[in-house]
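chain below, 187 aa
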Amino acid sequence: MKVTDFNMAEYLQFNPAEGTMMLKSQRMVMMSAHSFGILLKEIYTIGGENMLRVFFRRFGEATGRDDAKLLKVEFSPDTDMDWIALGPTIHTWEGIVKAVPEVIDFNRKDGHFYMKGTWENSFYAEQWKAMMGPSKKPICDILTGYATGYASEFFGRDLICKEPTCVACGDDKCRFEIKPREEWGDK
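prediction:
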């Protein structure tokens, strides 16, 4: 499959008699962004910002890995470029964020990976601002986690996504960069 041919609406199967919604073999759930915002606020109230950020980063990473596996097996991307581009595409279809890659550059043989782009209309930043107000630092942990998980599963080694700008901080857009862990220079 070419990434340009992906139309999630064609693959969703609704079965109200059983109470399920499926994307091929993967069960999906749908809930309001506001109810997710309430969950975000509750976790923050109970465990603080650090717990909230770790929780949603890990949750995002697991979701990204699941999507990468599902898309590879059940949608058979024509090329590696189609497979990596399906991550931002499905995230956009899911209503999470409009993911717009600007650079996708990788070479499996050399171990080189670099991807960057923007996230528009992040539901997470929207809910953060509604529930907690503006932030002093980028907060789209569920998105950076997802991109980390998806890209790492795709590439077969640990990659890290970071968000240098975020609308929750007053920036014009959320921006992301993904590269191998060791290239970030963090300890």
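The chain has five helices and seven strands. The longest strand covers residues 98-107.
thats it, cya
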